[in-house]
Amino acid sequence: MRKVVVALAMGLTLGWGASAYTQEVSPGRYSMQKSDTGIARLDTETGDVTLCREKDGELVCRMAADERAAFEREIDLLTKRVEALEKAVKSGETAMKPALPSDEEIDRTMSIMERMMRKFMEIVKDLEGSGGGSSDGTEVPQKT
Known about the structure:
- The chain is an alpha+beta fold.
- It has helices at residues 2-22, 65-91, 103-130; strands at 30-34, 39-43, 49-55, 58-63.
- Strands 1-2-3-4 form a 4-stranded antiparallel sheet.
- It is elongated.
- The model is unreliable at 4-9 and 18-23 (pLDDT under 50).
């Protein structure tokens, strides 16, 4: 019986060890590949490629040419936007004043509101006239 327990324990230990050994090591954020001129570093999260070279005992990295051009275009675009905003602030263009309605717009709005109120009052008068009684049980005279 003791041999069976020992054999079972050995089997479990080897099984756990094998499963731990077969697990893949998760890759880091960067993947490095040796090239003719140095090392190419790939950022696995963003896809950016950086070229690295050893210079005076230090590793110096620079962006790849196509990425650098895109990066510089973005910087130029943002610089122009900042300059335009600064110019607008200095000239006072950004202090927008609310546009007030014209007299015509006010008159038209008031006319619409007046018609709505007249219609509403007509409906109230009709309801009062067709009720025939009040809540306290007294007769309400009807208009003729």
